[in-house]
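Researcher: Next entry in the queue.
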Amino acid sequence: MTVTRHIFLVWILCLGFGAIAQKTPIVSSNTQKYTDAEIGFDAERLTQRLLERNIPEAEINFYIQSERELYIEQYQYMQSEMRQLEQEQLIFQKTVQTQNFAATSNAATPCTISEIEKQALIALYNATDGPSWTNSWDIQNTEPCDWYGVTVIAGVVAWLNLENNGLVGTIPEEIGNLAGLEILRLSNCQLSGTIPSSIGNLSNLEYLGLSSNQLTGEIPTVLSNCSNLERISLSNNELTGSIPASLGQLNNL
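Model: Structure for this entry, 253 residues:
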């Protein structure tokens, strides 16, 4: 059991005892209906326990209603956790498939990318103190297909994963020139400055991970142009302003 889930269950128990002591119904904002079997709630067993504790029959319905609401809250929380886990598993599976396909493709054909994409990668390297990265690139003597964290498929950069790689600096506007990029992971580094608006050019982008940096400014509204986005991770930064309403138009998010 995770710490978060443990804290949630302790909160559930405390809330339940408080409701019983004060005889104040727990008002749920949930409009969705669940069966007792769905949420794992045994009303008959609870009724028996209450009778054994000499709870007046006139009050039993109140206790059952309150306890059922707590079970619904816990059930919804667990469902939310499961959906997030499933989404992360899908991203992981896609990543593995992408790597395997890239390895097969690159073994069969020479690995090259366009000059504009290569220069975009070099711009990122230069803007984030590439020589000091944990896993650096030899931009003088090797090709991008051999660079750490770069996955090339059919001649385009499809995946760029430099998480936990010691990047220090800013994300250059040239990042928007990686037109075929599907996954961009730059979390857990020391990136500062603003999120470049050119990321809005990445129409194939499915995952954007920039969490745990020192990024400032507002979330660019142009991210809504990334129509294939399935997940955005921007937590633990110094971003200001509100979440752009236009992101609500992304059907896959």
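Model: Helices lie at 3-22, 36-39, 43-52, 57-108, 115-127.
Researcher: Noted, moving on.
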